[in-house]
Design brief:
It is a single chain. 38% of the residues lie in helices and 18% in strands. It is an alpha/beta fold. The strands form 6 sheets. A 7-stranded mixed sheet has the order 16-17-18-15-14-19-20, with helices on both faces. Strand 9, helix 4 and strand 10 form a beta-alpha-beta unit. Helix 8 packs parallel to helix 9. The longest helix has 30 residues. The radius of gyration is 25 Å and the shape is globular. It starts with 5 loop residues before the first strand and ends with a strand. The protein binds NADP nicotinamide-adenine-dinucleotide phosphate.
């Protein structure tokens, strides 16, 4: 049942007078539940409990943490249709998408459970002592990763399950041993509360400390600002707009004790159609991109908002097919009137720029809150000289840039802002023959895609979801896959520490039987 209350550790709380409701974009009306905005007292209590919980949670075994993560997955599944219905009523997204996202959320939780059960993720590195080394003896040094402390996670509007309350950031932080305080996204506060209840149940059932998880409601930025400034918060995970992510990053840097902010803020995801590929498969790619641009009404951080090609008849065939195919696709509901409002504003700003031509748009009447797709085109030189054309239009919008030649294409790519992905639609020989272009693309993105579209982010260890700013605030880390755990960890070295007092991961006997680097060699051996 949705109560609208905040979840402060194991206790539900509703002290505040400020309330808000979520919105059903399909019905174009508010949902019934009333949510209580978290007060300063509740924020302080959540941070205090998280700090207390950290004292024990940071040291619990991988097996115990795994049982907690798996129990969260079980409790989410037990919510069954109630969760799916609430999700749909707060997002306008179809049931199939809700079920798919729940599956991804469960998979992420269980992947982290497996990771911490196995244990080698702590990256134990041991250099044994050499007392007889000349001219100076070498000390015994043993290093491993250790959790940072309480983490604040800002739920993402476009992933109410997989990147919100029990999403990738939360699963990774809990796996690392960091208590989590979620700043629930106001657009899906009911979905968030149900998942928060599941996490709380799982924490109680598996004996986790009170405060290992809290969920705070808010419909404005004040709660997030207070959390970012709170001295007991040690790191932040965020998915959303560049404005929001950058504001939190600045706040965190201005604190007396600055803390890391891992913000994933999206991008335009350039797709390059190379000449030989355009010659042989212009129509094929036109159709594929029409689907990718409109997927989820374009509300993905990996949406292909920018397509680059060399001017000529083959690119024209591509543009014609893209235009013809994209208008055949029925528009779908966007997440919220604010998101569709932002989409229309940014789209209109782009369309007002000199030299940008609308190739096609979906013009028939649509239901309220449905996003109508638009394809535009522009000359390479015009694009290069107008930074407003480089901005993300979050929704079903894309721009085809017609470059004079490969040199101009390279110049454009090398001047793009940081991106999550870059796709090359090409024959293999075109990849091999255009090393400068490939290197330029590599310097701008986190994931290079060959003959594929950027939408569809596989959750696995080899995935890099993050890129140079403004795609993310720290391109060294990923927000997807098990390696995202590294955002919530810091290394600690023990020098000449007595074996009996060392953490299990670093003891001579290797009681956890984990893979360690000992004197430069990977091994599971004892010392
Ligand atoms: P958002 O406006 O960035 O908000 C995300 C979360 O951050 C919300 O919980 C919001 O709180 C909080 N927040 C925003 N600005 C803040 C600030 N200055 N200080 C503290 N907290 C702050 O993103 P959104 O609501 O998800 O969607 C709005 C727009 O973001 C979209 O139209 C789209 O352009 C972009 N977006 C991009 C991606 C992507 O992956 N590229 C994903 C989602 C959204 P409140 O809501 O409570 O104010």
């Amino acid at each position: 049942m949705i109560t609208g209350k905040n979840q402060i550790g194991f206790v539900k709380s509703a002290q505040g007078k400020k309330t808000f409701k979520t919105f059903n974009p399909q019905k174009n009306s508010e949902n019934d539940s009333v949510f209580y905005e978290a007060t300063t007292v509740e924020i302080n209590e959540a941070c205090h409990l998280a700090t207390e919980a950290f004292k024990t949670f940071k040291n619990i075994s991988g097996v115990q943490k795994a049982s907690f993560l798996n129990a969260i997955a079980d409790e989410i599944l037990a919510l069954d249709d109630v969760l799916i219905k609430t999700y749909c009523s707060e997002t306008g997204l179809p049931k199939g998408r809700a079920q798919g996202e729940r599956g991804r959320t469960i998979f992420q939780l269980r992947s982290f459970a497996d990771l911490v059960t196995e244990g080698s993720w702590v990256e134990a590195t041991i250099e044994t002592a050499q007392p007889d080394r000349k001219p100076l003896p070498k000390v015994d040094l043993r290093k491993m990763l250790t959790p940072l402390g309480p983490v604040v996670v800002f739920g993402a509007s476009n992933f109410p399950l997989a990147y919100s309350t029990a999403g990738g950031d939360t699963a990774a932080a809990l796996a690392a041993g960091c208590p989590v305080i979620v700043k629930s996204h106001p657009m899906h506060a009911g979905t968030g509360e149900l998942v928060a209840q599941a996490i709380t149940k799982a924490a109680q059932k598996t004996g986790m400390p009170n405060g290992v998880f809290s969920n705070l409601n808010s419909s404005g930025i004040e709660v997030g600002v207070q959390l970012a400034k709170h001295p007991q918060v040690k790191a932040i995970g965020f998915t959303g707009s560049v404005g929001g992510g950058r504001a939190l990053y600045n706040l965190a840097a201005q604190r007396e004790e600055p803390i890391p902010v891992f913000a994933e803020m999206g991008s335009v995801n350039p797709v390059i159609l190379m000449p030989k590929e355009a010659e042989s498969r212009a129509e094929y790619w036109g159709k594929i991109l029409a689907g990718s641009i409109t997927l989820g009404s374009g509300q993905f951080c990996t949406n292909p908002g920018l397509i680059l090609g060399i001017k000529g008849p083959d690119l024209n065939r591509f543009i014609t097919t893209l235009a013809n195919e994209i208008v055949k696709i029925e528009p779908s509901c966007m997440l919220h009137p604010n998101i569709i409002g932002a989409y229309e504003t940014k789209r209109d700003i782009a369309l007002a720029q000199n030299g940008l031509e609308k190739v096609t748009s979906f013009n028939s009447d649509v239901q309220k809150n449905y996003g109508r797709q638009v394809v535009t085109t522009v000359e390479g030189a015009t694009f290069l000289n107008n930074p407003k054309l480089h901005q993300e239009v979050f929704g079903p919008f894309s721009m085809v840039v017609q470059c004079e030649d490969i040199r101009q294409l390279e110049t454009i790519v090398s001047q793009l802002e940081g991106q999550l992905t870059g796709s090359l639609l090409a024959e293999e020989s075109e990849v091999l023959e255009n090393n400068t272009l490939v290197e330029a693309l590599k310097s701008r993105v986190g994931r290079l895609i060959f003959n594929g579209v950027p939408t569809g982010v596989e959750v696995c260890a080899a995935m890099q979801h993050g890129g140079p700013y403004p795609a993310s605030t720290d391109s060294r880390f990923t927000a997807v896959g098990i390696h995202s755990i590294k955002r919530w960890l810091r290394p600690v070295s023990y020098q000449n520490w007595p074996d009996a007092a060392l953490p299990k991961a670093l003891k001579n006997e290797n009681p956890l039987k984990i893979l360690r680097t000992i004197d430069g060699k990977l091994s599971i051996d004892k010392i």
